[in-house]
UniProtKB/TrEMBL annotation:
<keyword id="KW-1133">Transmembrane helix</keyword>
<dbReference type="GO" id="GO:0016020">
    <property type="term" value="C:membrane"/>
</dbReference>
<feature type="domain" description="FAD-binding FR-type">
    <location>
        <begin position="235"/>
        <end position="335"/>
    </location>
</feature>
<dbReference type="GO" id="GO:0050660">
    <property type="term" value="F:flavin adenine dinucleotide binding"/>
</dbReference>
<dbReference type="Pfam" id="PF00175">
    <property type="entry name" value="NAD_binding_1"/>
</dbReference>
<feature type="region of interest" description="Disordered">
    <location>
        <begin position="1"/>
        <end position="22"/>
    </location>
</feature>
<dbReference type="Pfam" id="PF01794">
    <property type="entry name" value="Ferric_reduct"/>
</dbReference>
<dbReference type="InterPro" id="IPR039261">
    <property type="entry name" value="FNR_nucleotide-bd"/>
</dbReference>
<keyword id="KW-0411">Iron-sulfur</keyword>
<dbReference type="InterPro" id="IPR017927">
    <property type="entry name" value="FAD-bd_FR_type"/>
</dbReference>
<dbReference type="InterPro" id="IPR050415">
    <property type="entry name" value="MRET"/>
</dbReference>
<keyword id="KW-0408">Iron</keyword>
<keyword id="KW-0812">Transmembrane</keyword>
<dbReference type="GO" id="GO:0051537">
    <property type="term" value="F:2 iron, 2 sulfur cluster binding"/>
</dbReference>
<dbReference type="InterPro" id="IPR017938">
    <property type="entry name" value="Riboflavin_synthase-like_b-brl"/>
</dbReference>
<keyword id="KW-0560">Oxidoreductase</keyword>
<dbReference type="InterPro" id="IPR001433">
    <property type="entry name" value="OxRdtase_FAD/NAD-bd"/>
</dbReference>
Length: 469
């Protein structure tokens, strides 16, 4: 069964020259810098009498711990801002899935430290003044400079954290979650300034002031440059517009876009953009869609599955509609491909970035295998293009049909009696020697990755990226 409306020849070249591989030490350097920042903050606290206060015991020690937790929370909040700022060097070093894990960890860690800071400072001040904690908290909010702003910022951060819990996130549409998540910037902006006005660890030392102002400036500057300035400049420079829209099958739509100087757009096959289409109300909400064809100097293609309000309206886009973009993002690219066998494991709409990679990677005939997991033939997208690659580039395509297994597995129910790794080696005997690319829903992708590792694929040749929010 062919799911496209007409035959098309896939693109097999990129518009921009290949970018050099990101050095592996970049990720280690960024992680080390984050760790060093926490050490610096602790050292500043010690230099400002933190250990002396702690050894004194009583309310003074509680206040000292409150200062330390507040400083660590502030530092992690600013690290989180830098992770959210889409700095290209950081994006290339980590990739989206790893960056998301860091972002989540720093977010929850800074939030719990912030709650500890509020509780400890309140108890310490109340003990010193011999007042009740609730009365002391209210007195601080209404009398200390910046505390009303800090309270509003804390409320915004509480809302962001609550909606980031997996159970709550599953109940929200992507559009709603994304809008609420932007309040993290407001929360950070309101919660931190009170420390500049009243925090002893900020006002007592020129070195501390220099450190914190540098960190604040770097965070704010990164957001302004990379979340606002660079996307605005690229959208203006390349002026992407919808060329035509093609229905690919039930609930699946491809959008073709043209623009200016696409040869200068630094995008690679396998990457994605955050897209905003200027087609009416709701255009301001961005949606992450991967390229589903190798980028060309005159044309880009994305393919969208109808999973919500934003994706459903894509099918109604009209030719000439302007598109604003953020990106490109993602590390599911061929920058680390060193030649030799290629194995692509796809599930559902996850085939789209892998399809774009098929056109870019310089594998030889017979070296590439695509294993495509779907519920049935009707859900297979781009069968005609996969067959084109099979005929013209010697790609082997294997379809695995059926419902989910009743256990955690990348295999469908009909094959679930087999060991995951053994079945992978049976389908693709060369997999231990191949570069393996995996894309699909989170649970499935984790199972496929585990099967590949168990089948003998080294981590350096295993390429995955998860796009869940």
């Amino acid at each position: 069964m062919t799911t496209t409306t007409h035959a098309r020849t896939p693109a097999t070249h990129t518009g921009a020259p290949p970018r050099r591989s990101t050095p592996r030490w970049w990720a280690d350097a960024v992680g080390a810098a984050a760790g060093v920042s926490l050490i610096v903050v602790t050292a500043l606290w010690v230099a400002n009498g933190g250990l002396r206060q702690l050894s004194a015991g009583g309310p003074e020690a509680v206040t000292a711990l409150g200062r330390l937790t507040g400083l660590l929370a502030s530092d992690l909040l600013l690290v989180q801002v830098l992770l959210m700022a889409r700095v290209p060097a950081v994006e290339r070093a980590f990739g989206q899935d790893r960056l998301a894990r860091w972002h989540r960890w720093t977010g929850f860690a800074s939030f719990h430290l912030m709650l500890a800071h509020v509780a400890l400072i309140t108890l310490g001040y109340a003990g010193t003044a011999h007042t009740g904690p609730l009365g002391e908290l209210w007195d601080m909010i209404v009398t200390l400079p910046g505390m009303l702003l800090a309270t509003a910022g804390t409320a915004a951060l509480v809302m962001v954290v609550v909606t980031s819990v997996r159970r709550a996130r599953r109940r929200l549409r992507y559009e709603s979650w994304h809008l609420l998540h932007l309040y993290a910037y407001l929360g950070v902006g309101l919660a931190l300034p009170h420390q500049l006005w009243t925090g002893a660890d900020f006002v007592a030392s020129p070195l501390a002031r220099a450190y914190w102002w540098t960190l604040y400036t770097a965070g704010a500057g990164a957001v302004l440059v990379y979340r606002l300035g660079l996307p605005a400049w690229r959208s203006w420079r390349h002026r992407l517009v919808v060329s035509h829209v093609v229905p690919e099958g039930p609930g699946l739509t491809s959008v073709y876009l043209t623009g200016r100087r696409l040869d200068r757009l630094p995008v690679r096959a396998g990457q994605f953009f955050q897209w905003r289409f200027l087609d009416g109300p709701g255009w301001s909400r961005a949606h992450p869609y991967s390229l589903s064809a190798t980028p060309r100097t005159d044309l880009l293609r994305i393919t969208v599955k109808d999973l919500g309000d934003g994706s459903a309206r894509v099918a109604a886009l009209r030719p000439g509609t302007r598109a604003l973009v953020e990106g490109p993002y993602g590390k599911l690219t061929g920058e680390r491909y060193t030649g030799g066998p290629v194995v692509m494991l796809a599930c559902g709409i996850g085939v789209t970035p892998l399809l774009s990679l098929l056109g870019e990677l310089p594998y030889r005939p017979g070296e590439a295998t695509v294993v495509y997991r779907a519920r049935g033939e009707a859900e297979v997208a781009f069968r005609d293009e996969l067959e084109w690659f099979a005929r013209h580039r010697g790609v082997r395509v294997r379809y695995l049909y059926g419902p989910r297994a009743d256990r955690t597995s990348w295999l469908p129910a009909g094959h679930a009696g087999h060991d995951d790794a053994a079945m992978l080696r049976r389908i693709v005997p060369m997999v231990p020697h191949a570069h393996v690319y995996v894309c699909g829903p989170d649970g499935w992708a984790a199972a496929a990755r585990a099967a590949a590792v168990a089948a003998g694929v080294p981590e350096r040749r295993l390429h995955t990226e998860q796009f869940a929010w």
